[in-house]
Amino acid sequence: MPVTDISADADTLTVNITADFAAPRERVWKVFTDPRQLERFWGPPGWPATFTGFDFAPGGLAQYHMTSPNGEVSRGRWEFLSIDEPRSFEVLDGFADEDGDLTGEFEPMRMVFAFEETPTGTRLNGQTYFTSADSLEQMVQMGMVEGTRLAMGQLDTVLQDLRDYAAGKGTQLEVLDDRHVRITRVIDGPRDLVWRAHHEPDLIRQWMLGPDGWRMTDCEISDRHYRNAWAPESGTEGEPFGFEGDILYSEPQRRTVMTERMAGTDGPETMNDLQLYEEDGATLLTMLIEYPDAATRDAILATGMIDGMEDSYARLERVLIVS
């Protein structure tokens, strides 16, 4: 995780962040000033950003929105106040309406991003300035500090070439807190095929087969619901099982959010937020999973879930992409 310090200071009415990156300053500058790269981390897990405008010049505007797992939208905009490439830039950040105008609900915040070369790469020193103690307190209560920490924690994958990032790593697990984990896997294939492999039953049946000695017996998916089931082959021990849930939000080729529970039961239920990003013919698959509590998280992870996911993703590459 690149963040080394983030804190709110009531005396100076600021939120301050320090983050260190093992990458040259020009590379770090690029991810903060290219809207397609900004989208990959500007917004905490579960609230990814989409930039719809980006006029990177003094007086220019950047417009963006963040979308929750349930499809709720929070809009914002930056007004660029000054730019000193590649050392720093300054913006006025505020909540916006559908037309991109400031809502007036909260006072805009002045944000300064400064990038300093270090012996190991680059240090970001960021300050957000508030106009009053009340506005600072409001944003802290809304989760700004922890949200910023989680957002910046996504930068490692953005700074690296996807193929370099993925080399030899397979399916990776990060425990974010008691209720959330992030799973990442780079699939050596295009995003449209990876998307279809998660949404078309004929393709799902080719790779999501379960453990060795098991077969997929049921695969149903609609705009609102899905159900998958497996059973052991003859000679394999075990009882048939399945998963089902509701599709809460879908943005084709990019994101699907769905609930998941054991079929035929009342829970426990998780919320799975699948996001896809393509670079140079490879697709980064990110799955943010929300559990009801830490005990449920630990019990599910202890089943060997990650190893099973790696087997399935390796089969996806082998069966659908290489062939």
UniProtKB/TrEMBL annotation:
Family: Belongs to the AHA1 family.
Domain spans labelled Activator of Hsp90 ATPase homologue 1/2-like C-terminal: 22-159, 190-320
Name listed for the protein in its UniProt record: SRPBCC family protein
